Amino acid sequence: MEFWKMTGAGNDFIILDNRSLWADSERLSRIAKALCRRRLSVGADGLMAVEPARAGGDYQMRFYNADGSVGEMCGNGARCICRYGYEMGLAGQTQKVETTAGLVTGTRLDRETYQVHLNLPSVLDPRRPTALGLTGYAELGNPGVPHGLLHVPGLQDKTMEELRPMGRALRYDSAYPKGANANLYDFLGPNHVVVRTFERGVEDFTLACGTGTGSLAAYLTVTGQVSPGPVLVENPGGTLQVDVTCEEGRITQLLLTGPATVVCRGTIEELPL
Predict the structure, then answer these.
(1) Per-residue pLDDT tens for 17-61?
(2) Do the Cβ atoms of 186 and 151 come closer than 8 Å?
(3) Most buried one in 60, 95, 148, 223, CB count within 10 A?
(4) What is the pLDDT, as a whole number, of residue 272?
(5) DSSP string, 96-164
């Protein structure tokens, strides 16, 4: 079984071509759990399977978290899959990728830099009560990727050990019907923020979260905490940029720009898949 391993700002993924493997959803879930185990296998935050297009795209992306659960979409993963699609000849410089959350358009800016149109918010609640206080809540796409958004002053000075109980509590808070990725953030300057994301399916902090970055930029723009336009978001794995277009209090475009890096390509052997 051939695979690519890629990373987008430290958010890492395994990519399989399911057009030849033809694994069903149950088997892909088992494969994701087996291959994403760190130190016991390839190791990754998630797995993406490429399949033929079914709804007008160039191809389809099916996304699985490290625990085998299905994810609606992944912003960093979408950039990576666009590089894979371009280099494998599945699409050109601009491509349309079918995801569970809707059609995503991606553009190659240079060899390692890609930009994707994130799914627009289907839910954007600026004041949702939780056990940790009022938070923002956003879902990108339909069905949407859920994100809880909590301002934590002095975030950069806190260790992951200090933040982990807060991230876990927000991730499982009953205010979020599907559970949520917990995005803890603070301000570094005008249109410049820092974020730490505790992700569903990984059940820990990851080095970056593309949909979390987009959700945060959308929320801060709608609530007037940043100005419409480019928002720089510092993740532990690197800087991502979100260009936000907002019209009459409604988000009309979210462009996520960042790296899509190939780590390695190889063959899986001796795993009970």
Answers:
(1) 999 889 999 999 999 999 999 999 999 999 999 999 999 999 999
(2) yes
(3) 148
(4) 59
(5) EEEETTEEEEEEEEETTEEEEEPPPEEEEEEEEEETTEEEEEEEETTTTEEEEEEE-TTGGGS-HHHHH
Q: Which two tokens stand for residue 67?
A: 């625990």
Q: How far apart are CA 196 and CA 48, in angstroms?
A: 23
pTM listed for this prediction = 0.94
What's the pLDDT tens digit per position in 222-250? 999 999 899 999 999 999 999 999 998 89
What is the set of active-site residues?
Answer: 74, 209
Amino acid in position 5: K
Element (H, E) at 167: helix 160-171
**CB burial class (10 A; 0-12, 13-18, 19+) of residue 183?**
buried
Tokens 């991230």 locate to 167
* pLDDT tens, residue by residue, 170-210: 999 999 988 999 999 999 999 999 999 999 999 999 999 99
